[in-house]
Each structure stands twice: as structure tokens, then as C-alpha cells.
Design brief:
The chain is of the alpha+beta class.
Amino acid sequence: MVSTRHHPREYDSPAPTKASTPSSSENNGVSSKKWVHTPTTAVTLWLLFSIPLVLWDAAYVLLRPHSMSGGKWHALWSGYAWYGTVDYIYGWPAYNANNGFTAAQTILNLVETGGYLYYLYVVYAHGAPASRSSKSSRGSESTLSWLLAADKVVPGRVGATALLAAFSSSVATVSKTLLYCKWLQEYFSNFENIGHNEFWPLVAWVILNGLWIVVPAWNLHVLGEEIVSSLTNAAPRSRGRPKAHVRHCAILEQHLSNASTMTSKEKKRIAIIGAGAAGMSCASTLAKHPQKFNLTLIDSATQTGGQATSLDLDASKYGASWLNDGVQGGSSIFKHTFKFFHEQGHSAHEVKLQVSFGKGKDSFFTNVFPSPLIEQFRGEIVKFGRVLKIIKYGFPVFGILPIKVLLRLFRFSTEFGNKMLLPLVALFLGTGNQTPNVASGLLERLFGDPEMRLWEFDQEGLVSGLPVMYTFPRLGEFYADWRRDLEERKRVRILLGTEVEVVRRDDDGVVLGMRTYEREQQEEFDEMVLCTPADESLKILGQRATWKEKWVLGGVKFFDDVTITHSDAGYFNSVFETKARDELCGAATTTEREEQLAFAKASSTCEEDGWTGFNPMYFTHSYASEQEKIEMGFDCSNYQHQFRESVGAGNRPYPPDQHVYQTIFLDQQRQGLWTWDAIDKDKIIGKKWWHQFGHRWQHYLRVVPGMMFINGKNRTLFAGAWTLVNMHEIACVSGIAAAYRLGAKYEDFDDFATGLFSKYLLACHGVRYKSEDKKHR
């Protein structure tokens, strides 16, 4: 529960006592030779607020049953009469069951409180004015005023001891509250003590307990930064150290300084491994500084683009000669992606998105018109809007909860989750059958974050309206053009069909072993950027991966999915809803709903940016045996722009048998559920397996926060969509961020794009985008 305002710094020497020295401004302050700790007013205020509450709570627990409802001292703890009905661990059920957990927890509370009290005592008794000009003086102010004064420091060993005590107590607070006291205990006991509550008592419980997670966790971060900085800047111990060794250290330091100065004038040799969106973005950004970098881009594939691929079609049969069969499009936030398109003479095309969720009257809903399912879950949709606000304002607490836990915590029905929320998240985040384990923060981002959302929350229909999406140009050609630009104009060396492993990685550089069909060789580089999936990055690092890299990268969970591209309209219609049938339409209770239904039932006509009539592009359906599991599909002829260009504005669409469809079967381990055997094998155009990561809640508790601790360390940076969210745009931003860390300039071309870049840089690198870099050059 303690943080510091500054990292260790030098101050003037502490003021002598009044008895020994006359009052003089020259005698106030702290020695410039001593390390000091600088307490903050905010932290002290938090301790003064929280310690009495913890002691009051401890007294209640240890004095039970006299402190409980009906006890002789209950008047002092009357608020616990209500709280004991919310959380049974504090009420009669746990006490009558002789549950000793509450008392054991209280003893730990008292231990950590002792650490905090010691910290406050040291701040009061040993604190000194921060500078000679400071007006603060313990002798001239009350105890409270002195504790809350912002301009004081605690010097020397006693300050370091207090800092360590506060840090240790904060660790105890966070771990006890998060792991033992409340959250995980409730989860693994099936919410035995709080599962009986209605909505608002649960909210109160989460806020009251979440406060003791959020504040100490933040203080741990700041406090840990001070400790790490202190250790990093600490001078070597002189006791027993030979003078010759001291001279050697000085000579070595000078040598390293000279070497740094010399190499800074030379070009850095950068190896970028992985030529997908992240690797190409990194190379393109670094290539704008040819005087600073020699670049080598390496990939085991024989073409650039990674998962962004295209396949050829028979135009006489399907109306178009190509199809993007991996990455297909994105929203208006894909600013960096569109910029790279423009630089290579390509462009994205607008389309008004139509989506079909579920199969059958009891499971279907869409963003195009109202359905009976919307009427059935109207009350839960309204409640869901309130929960989105709770997630937003309590993000550090609620944001990491798995969606399945959130739904249970706020007592949503299983049907609402399976039929509405899970398919929605699965489709737009590509999380598939791992969606129940996705962090709830992503659910809120889909509706509340302008950098991710497609729809604003609609309490009348959850999602409604036709958001504008953008379909990508022919990605095979785009990435081929991008490769030629890098090779021919920007002199980037590109090695495709090349396997890589790290042979050596130390202060001298990175030595890579590179193998093709023809030869093997080793080459040394100054820095390395791994733009490969996390598991592949670990394989490349091999035994030279640090424990931090193993921990962070090992937390990324991948699943194998398969996409089948086909023209089997009969199969597609049997598993997805493709038409606005009467039984799927809800009541026209408002003018807006009448217009939506009229639009959906209108004759289908091609437009430049979509279709009139119900012509869905994205689809999901749930398995009857496991309704939390889904299949996804695309009608590419409705979605991708090249098909609409072939049809022509104002014309009717091609017959269903001439459409190109994609069905995505998720998680090979659940292959027994798949319906792929029902697809006519004569109508299969292509089959492609994908290695996709899951946006599990553990990903945002372990991987994303851990990236800043491995990025830029050991001459290695990491990039890829897996570092945050599975989007082509995030892949591009991650590559640009890696280039920025290596010394490239970020081109500020759009305020929204700059904001996204800044947030990514802070989240995954722990680096703030420098204010001077935000100015247009």
C-alpha cells in the first residue's frame, strides 16, 4: 500500500537538531551522498484511511460472537449485520460451521498492518525536509500535517528498511486478497459464500474488496520500480574489495563507454524474423533510416504475408478471380494497415456489415432486424448494459475475469451467454471455442472502446445498425509489392525459405544459425526482432531463452483451426441462417423496427458498399450438444468487394451455388463436434489450417503485462498480434513499436493512430511515447 513519488535521487544533508545548530537555511535538507526514499501524500493518506478499517475489521472477527448480530458489543460493528448476509464468510453460516478461515485471514491482516505502521512511524520519526528551501518542519507542524507533507524524505538505511517493509506488506495484501481471501477462493468453491446474492449486493462486494487489490497492486508497481532502480544504480560494496579490482572496474566502465560511443556511429545490424504483418511493418519502419540500420528479414515460408494470404478462383464460375482466404478485412481503426496499403498503391473498400448469429427461431439474432430472441432476453440485455459500465470503471478488477465467471457473478442465464454474448465475442475477436475463458475486459472493449468497437451498446437489440467495415485488397499481391519495395528500393535483405535458431546471445550480439535447402550458415547481428508466434519464438530461442521469456511466452495458448473454402450452398444454408424468414422476425413495435424489417425483406440488390435486403456476411451457429461451442462462417461473395464489383451496382446477386463460402472449424481437439463431413467434397475449393492464439483471461494476467519485462532485453524484441489482440492492425503496430524501440521515428499521421500506438507502446513495452516525438516534424 505504499508508493514513492520519485526514483532515488540526491538531496542535501539532513538538518541537525536545534540544540546543536542554530536555525539556518543552510543546515536544512538532506545529504547529497545518501540514498533517500520519498513518501507520497496520496499513499500516506491511503494508509491513514485503511489501517483503522483493517483494525476495526480484525476486532470484529476476533471478538465474535459478541461483535455479531445479537452480541453484547454488536453496536460497534452494526454494519457487519448486513455484510454478513452478503459474504457468509463474515456471517453466521461460516461461524456456525467452525470455519477458521476468517480468523486465520485476520491474523495475516494484523501482520501486514504491522508493516504499514512501522512504515508510518519511520516516515514520521526519521523524515527530513527534502531541500533547504522546504518550509516543512516536524517541529513546527502537527503530526498529521507532517505525515501528509509532500516535501519530505527518509534517508539512509532506515528509509530503505521502511521501503522494504511497505513493499512486503503490499505483496501480502495483494496476494491474500486476490488468492486466499476472496476471489479465487470463491471461484474454486463455486461461489459458496457470495453466490446467493442479487446484482447490487454483488457489486458492493466487488467494490469493497477490489479496492484492496487495485490500490496495493499499483503501489507494488511504483514501489518495485524504486527498488529495482536503487539496485541498478547502487555502487559496489567496498568492504574487502582490492584497490586493483576497483581500478579494473573503472577501466572496464571507460572501455564500455568508449565502445558505446564508437558503435553508435556505425549501422546497427538488425535481424527481423518473421515476414508477416508485424515483421514487414518493422522492416518498413526501420528502412526509412538507411543511415542507421542494416536490415535482414527472414522467414521460413516462401512468401511474405504470414496468415494474410489469397487464393485463385475461376472467375467464370464465381465472378471473381481471387479471394482473401485468411485475413479478410477490418474496421475504420486500422489506420496503420491502410497507410501501408496506400504506400504500395492498394486500398481497402467500404462495406456495410450484416451478421447472422445462431440457427433457428430460438437461437437467431442479427444486427439487421429484430428477432424473437431479442424479445426473450430484453431484461438481460438491459442488465448487460449496466455491467459494461461496471467493467469499464472497475477495469483492473473486472477486466481480468473470464467471461464465464462474469456471467455467473452477475447471474446471467446460461442461455443468454451461449446464444448471444459468446457468439458475438467469438466472431469478432476470433476467440472461437475459448471464448468463455476470454478476459471480460475485451467484452467491454467491443462496445466501449472507440479503437475496437463495431457497435455502441443498444439496449433495444444488443447490436443494431450496419457498421462500416473495410475489405482488404488482394493481400497476396499487396505483400508481394511490399516485398519488392523493401528489397529493390530500400535495400532490405530478405531471406525466405530459411529456418533460424539462436546460436549465441550475449552482450556482444546475437548469432543466428540459418538453414535453407541448399546451405547452412551463421551470422552475427546487433539486435533481433522476433515477429513469430510465441511458441515458435521459444523454439528459435531454444536453450538461450531466459526464465522470464519462458514464463511470458509460455503463457500464450494456441489452438489449431481449419478453414474450408467451398461453394456448397446446401450445406451452408443447413447450418446458418441466410434468409430473413418470417419466423425469424420480431415484432415491429417502433417505426425504426418497421424500417429494419422492411429493409431485410426487400429484394436483394448490389450496392457499392453492400446490399439492400438481408444478405449476411458473417455467421455463427452453436452445437446442440455443447451450446457454448460454435462454428463460424463467411459468405465471401456477399462480403469481399471484388465479388460485388463483378455483380455491378443495382444488379441482383449471383445464385447461391455460385457463391464462395468459408466455414471455420475451431480447436482440433473438439473435432468430434465438427460438421465438415457434410460438405460436398466436390465443391471444396481449398482447405487451410491455422495456428491461432486464444484470448484467455490468463493471457491478460500473465502475457500482456509480462511483455514489458522481456521486450528490449537481451538484444531481443517481440512483435505480433499475439502480444495483445488478434488483429492485423495490432500486428502492424507491434512491428512499428519494435522499430521505435530500436531508434526509428514514429510518423505521426493521424491522432487516432498515434493514440493506439502510444497505448500499445506503454502496455507491451512499458515505454511512454515521448512528448517531443508527438509533435509533427
